[in-house]
Amino acid sequence: MKSKLGKASRLCVVDQKTPSRFKSILAGLSAPILMLLFLYSGTPAPVLAATTTSTYKIASSADDVNQDGSTFVANSLTLWVGNGASTASSFTGLRFANVTIPPGAIISSAKLRLYSTANQTTAINFELAAEAADNSPAFSSSNLPSQRTLTAQRTQSQITTAWNASTWYAFDLKASVQEVISRAGWQSGNSLAILAQGLGSASAQRVVRSYDGNTSQAPRLVVSYSTGATNTPTPTNPPATATSLPQTPTPVPPTPTLAPTTPTPVPPTPTSVPPTPTATPLTSGSVRVLCDSQIYDSYTTKPFVLDTTIDQDPTVQKVIRNCTFRNSNKPPIVIRNAKNVLVEGSTFENIRTNIAGDGVQAINIPCPAGCAIDNITIRNNTFRYIGADGIQLGSDTANISNVYIVGNEFVGRDDVGENGVDVKGVVGPIYVTGNRFHGFRPCESPKTIPAGTQDCSGSNGPAVTIHDGGSVLTPADQVTVEDNDLYDNTFGIHVGGGAKNITLRGNRVSNNLSIGIHVEQATSVQITGNVLTDNPIHIKVSYTPLLGGFCVINDNTFVGTGTPLVLVSSNCN
């Protein structure tokens, strides 16, 4: 029922500040009066602070990492979540710098967002937590994810539903982030680390984009928070405050095929003799530039053999960049005993002897007895028409680790070229990621179709081959081939010779003449998340795994014509 005041009725509002003379007048009125009394205390009502939503992104290559047992990886094009080969010590580490959440903030939402790079169905199990630290330090091989103290608040994720390619997936971390922000030593602008520990079986993992793969698709932490209640200084209406809405990452289309960076054009030299390098290469701080924008044409001695004391010093980076090596029968770069080497933006072309069975490599990393080769990065180069391999590792001994072959282009043709990358007996880890391989054919000397003499002998034409090697035959170990394009070769990828802990993941293998991925007599191999198109046989596995090993084949996509999978005396999951 509604109450109505008559025409003679009066509505009066009286508060503490109404003058007493008006109160007396009101008291003398005869008509009914509704009086509302407001008590004015002088203290405004509390107003809740606005919610702020901030998105923090991985800001450097070293801030998204994987740890698989004692193996630490900081610059792969992708990350895995779940388990590597280790069931006891598999971690994904993510460090978000400059987190500008004030001390004491109330977290209303915190989501870790990861970008799936492929269609994936492997069941994974992992636990998410934050590092219980006021300011998380950077990850490194001496400060591993497994060495961090975790928050008491943790979240276990068991994922069995399928993931789609090019899609963001979110994980709740509200309680873990709140625990860090509530620490007495937390300050706005500190770094906050998130860790995912695998709790599943060996190699049960899914792959997401990393900072190195695409900065716009790298992991991100989206946090909504408020700073508690505040009082307005006057009883007047407070100004309108806009509440930030949670930021939804925009779906990003699949990353296009990585093409090598085009080297800076350099005018041709007037003679066939390369410029003589200065006796003391340019040194700047801890960087020693051996070659920058020089052309070596028809040279007769090996331009760079890295085997000196300074070459072995891991604190000094040796750099060869934007250089051209062409028209010679000598390998331009031999890394015999060195650490911390960068070769980038260079062109290697027509390096060959034209002598049957006498092929040379563009970059040879033999590692003779007593050597220790570590932290070698070969990126954004072009290898074209090399007599033997574009890059060969481990022809002498296996003490080669942390080699990164990233974003290069390898080109062969019918009459020249053995393999783009040849990984022999190495201890690893070795990473072959984001490259393009095409045109590799079997070595035949003398050739009949087309006629001619091919330098190399004994290869059946894979773009990438991984096997045993060395003066004492040793199987290759810990090699990852990921996110590459391999097309128009006889074989895309070949693995054999007892190779161990080999991961072939997320590659695009198409239009090869025989087999896309060929594995024979390997100890342990995982083939997952690849897209294979129009190969006569997409995947063939023979006599694998060897004793004590494993063979995993899952989440691959087969397109067009060709037999999807051939197993010969093999037991693969």
Would you kindly provide a brief summary of this structure?
With 573 residues, this protein is mostly beta strands. The strands form 10 sheets. Strands 17-18-21-24-27-30-33-40-43-46-49 form an 11-stranded mixed beta sheet, with no helix packed on it. Strands 19-22-25-28-31-34-41-44-47-50 form a 10-stranded parallel beta sheet, with no helix packed on it. It has a 10-stranded parallel beta sheet with strand order 20-23-26-29-32-37-42-45-48-51, with no helix packed on it.
Structure overview:
The structure is a single chain. A hairpin with a 4-residue loop joins β38 and β39 (474-475). It contains two helices and 51 strands. The chain is mainly β and 573 residues long. Mean pLDDT is 83; it is low at 1-12, 35-41 and 230-285. The termini are far apart. Among the domains are: 1-41, no CATH class; 52-227, Jelly Rolls (Sandwich); 336-489, no CATH class. The strands form ten sheets. It has an eleven-stranded mixed beta sheet with strand order 17-18-21-24-27-30-33-40-43-46-49, with no helix packed on it. The chain has a ten-stranded parallel beta sheet with strand order 19-22-25-28-31-34-41-44-47-50, with no helix packed on it. A ten-stranded parallel beta sheet has the order 20-23-26-29-32-37-42-45-48-51, with no helix packed on it.
> Taking strands numbered 1, 2, ... along the chain, how are they ordered across the largest sheet?
17-18-21-24-27-30-33-40-43-46-49
Head-to-tail CA distance between termini: 74 Å
| Main β sheet profile | 11 strands, mixed
The stretches of 5 or more residues where confidence is low (pLDDT under 50) are: 1-12, 35-41, 230-285
**On the 0-100 scale, what is the average pLDDT?**
83
**Could you name the CATH class of the domain at 52-227?**
Mainly Beta
Individual helix count:
2
Helix content: under 10%
CATH architectural group of the domain at 52-227: Sandwich
Kindly state the number of beta strands: 51
Structural category is: mainly beta
Computed CA radius of gyration, to the nearest angstrom: 32 Å
Multimerization state: single chain
Strand fraction equals 35-45%
CATH fold name of the domain at 52-227: Jelly Rolls
Please state the overall shape, judged from the principal axes of the Cα atoms: globular
